[in-house]
Design brief:
Layout (H helix, E strand, L loop, with lengths): L7 H13 L2 H21 L1 H7 L10 H12 L6 H47 L2 H5 L3 H8 L1 H31 L3 H17 L1 H30 L1 H6 L3 H51 L4 H31 L1 H15 L20 E10 L2 E11 L4 E6 L5 H9 L6 E6 L2 E2 L5 H5 L2 E4 L10 H5 L8 H10 L4 H4 L17 H13 L5 E5 L7 H13 L5 E5 L3 H6 L2 E6 L2 E6 L19
Parallel strand pairs: 3-8, 3-9, 6-7, 7-8
Antiparallel strand pairs: 1-2, 1-4, 4-5, 9-10
Helix pairs in contact: 2-5, 2-8, 3-4, 3-5, 5-8, 5-14, 7-10, 8-13, 9-13, 10-12, 10-13, 12-13, 18-20
């Protein structure tokens, strides 16, 4: 059975090189130096034993001869003290090098995870709105939280694999100077164990692929259930919510247990069979392999130090197999987001009117979702500075039409024009920076009221905020004990529905918008407050183009143009007080290219 992770590893290495550049060779260099120093430390046991003059321990092996020659270069005799001094220096140098390696490896892992989180979040934010509609929120949240950490774990394990590999190579080279046959035995034994444990590696890769899906499901369930806590509590369906969450948790438990237990099985295979080999070397090495006792002792020391590295190497590979699929998932999601990327240019086109109220026209606009037609051959014109309201039954296409104006949906046919410019040819930032938006469910971040109001423009002054709050009939903010410093809670949970709408409306009015878009913006307001908000909107006529969806009498009464939608079509439009039902008020718009 082929390991599906193999094609991913080169891609991860290439990506890490692109992100970290020269820091990777520096890390590998430190790893190599540390491996050499540790190998030299263990090898120096042989000349130390020889210098002690024990029976049968003579300094006639290559390692001892190299050590003696090195000491003579510094006019030192090969005494036990001199050899021990060399070992102390080697151990100290190994410790310093290991700490330097660990510091750099930890720093690079943290940086690599952060770079993935930044890339994913930036890539998602730059994508067209339809990208968000086509993916579960939990999948996208996991892509910028859990999954980059899994890639970082793969990165750290690859570092450990390189370190273990270099250490093993150095130890084998040292052993070659001592006993060639023993080296052959060790290498053959290691290859055999790797072959015998390959099945667990393949299974880890399968577990890792499934873990990506389970993590996303868990994130989706947690977000939906916790976000809908009010509904769950109000309907006494806690058991149903728990059982739904339990399904994903149980799958996650099965995967993590299976991977953890497999790792311990592999460890047991390596360690216990390795113990048997150590006993065999000590008992049979001098007779069967014609190896000197001192060499056997050093070989055993090398083996005792080496074999945990071999065991860890297999475990590292298994961890890589388990978590590497996250790289493929995130890479695919990032490519998909990039293919749906919005135009990022911020330069305004020649003749762009700047801060003046926007004029909007929809010409033969049709939008379909699969076989369902959401808008059909819509032709409307909204003059600059007009106050326009769209009405119609649920599902008539009102929100879809607003999404067209915002540039969040692209027509299947027809053109949306802003100030005469085709909207699909305008950089999104150029158009949307001039929009104040308030949706059906006001978005407030878990921060202070002041921070929420400054979301559009951090440089907004307190005087501008006060004026916006007054225009949005949100004077209650000034009466709060902490005023603008009041924290609104998660999704504004510490505020009432009407308070959330008024704060969000004040935010929409800040930043000198050219267009104010209101999607059922007064639905949570009482009649008295709605009248105050409507009066404020009326005062904005001519200064800002206002486009609203509403069924409330106050907004419809004071609007200059009312469009009624039905079945994806503009069935009628009227100007209250001057036009009768069935007439269409369309302001002329001069097209530009």
């Amino acid at each position: 059975m082929e390991n599906p992770v193999k094609p991913i590893l080169p891609a991860i290495v290439k990506d890490a090189w692109t992100t970290l550049r020269w820091k990777l060779p520096a890390l590998v260099s430190l790893t190599f130096v540390n491996a050499v120093l540790e190998g030299a430390t263990i090898a120096s046991l042989l000349p130390l034993l020889g210098s002690l003059g024990a029976d049968g321990l003579v300094a006639n092996d290559r390692v001892s001869r190299i050590t003696i020659e090195g000491l003579r270069l510094f006019n030192l005799s090969p005494s036990p003290g001199a050899v021990a001094g060399v070992m102390i220096v080697l151990i100290a140098a190994s410790a310093v090098t290991f700490i330097a390696y660990s510091h750099l490896a930890s720093r690079l892992q943290a940086f690599y995870v952060a770079s993935w989180q930044q890339r994913m979040f930036a890539g998602l934010l730059a994508a067209d709105f339809r990208f968000f509609v086509s993916h579960r929120t939990g999948d996208l949240v996991a892509a910028v939280t859990n999954e980059p950490n899994r890639i970082g774990l793969v990165f750290s394990q690859v570092n450990l694999i390189i370190a273990a590999g270099l250490f093993i190579i150095v130890q084998i080279v040292v052993a070659l100077f001592i006993a060639l046959w023993v080296v052959g035995l060790l290498v053959g034994f290691g290859v055999l164990l790797f072959t015998l444990t390959r099945w667990w590696s393949v299974r880890a890769a399968r577990f890792g692929t499934e873990l990506t899906r389970v993590n996303a499901d868990l994130m989706v369930d947690a977000n939906e259930i916790i976000g809908g806590a009010k509904f769950v509590k109000a309907t006494a369906t806690e058991d149903r919510a728990f059982n739904r969450f339990l399904g994903a948790v149980s799958r996650l438990e099965t995967l993590t247990f299976g991977n953890a237990f497999d790792a311990q099985v592999v460890r047991a295979i390596f360690e216990y069979t390795g113990g048997l080999l150590v006993i065999g070397l000590i008992v049979l090495g001098p007779k069967l392999l014609s190896v000197d006792v001192s060499a056997v002792l050093v070989i055993v020391a090398i083996f005792v130090r080496l074999f945990p590295k071999v065991t860890a190497l297999r475990q590292n590979l298994q961890i890589v197999d388990f978590h590497a699929p996250a790289f493929e998932v995130l890479s695919g999601l990032l490519r998909e987001a990039s293919s749906d990327r919005e135009a990022s240019a911020k330069d305004k086109p020649p003749g762009w009117p700047g801060s003046a109220p926007a004029s909007i026209a929809l010409e033969n606009v049709s939008i379909a979702h699969g076989s369902q037609e959401l808008l059909s051959d819509v032709n409307i014109a909204i003059p600059a500075g007009a106050f326009v309201v769209f009405t119609g039954h649920t599902g008539s296409g009102k929100t879809t039409l607003l999404d067209c104006i915002l540039g969040l949906r692209r027509p299947n046919s027809g053109v949306v024009r802003v100030d005469g410019y085709p909207l699909d040819q305008l950089p999104s930032a150029v158009w949307r920076r001039g929009i104040g938006y308030l949706g059906q469910d006001p978005v407030l971040f878990n921060a202070s009221i002041g921070e929420n109001l400054r979301w559009i423009d951090p440089q907004t002054t307190d005087e501008e905020i006060s004026a916006a709050l007054e225009a949005a009939a949100a004077g209650f903010v000034g009466r709060l004990p902490e005023g603008l410093n009041t924290v609104v809670g998660n999704h504004g949970s510490r505020m009432s529905g009407g308070e959330r709408q008024r704060i969000a409306l004040a935010r929409a009015l800040l930043g000198s918008p050219r267009l104010l878009v209101l999607d059922e913006a007064t639905s949570a307001l009482d009649i008295e407050t709605e009248e105050l908000v409507t009066e404020a909107l009326v005062r904005l006529k001519g200064r800002i183009t206002i486009v609203a969806i509403s069924h409330r009498p106050a907004l419809i009464r004071d609007a200059e143009i009312v469009f009624n939608l039905g079945n994806g079509m503009v069935e009628r439009s009227k100007k209250p007080g001057s036009l009768v039902a069935g007439e269409v008020q369309a302001a002329p718009v001069t097209p530009r290219h």
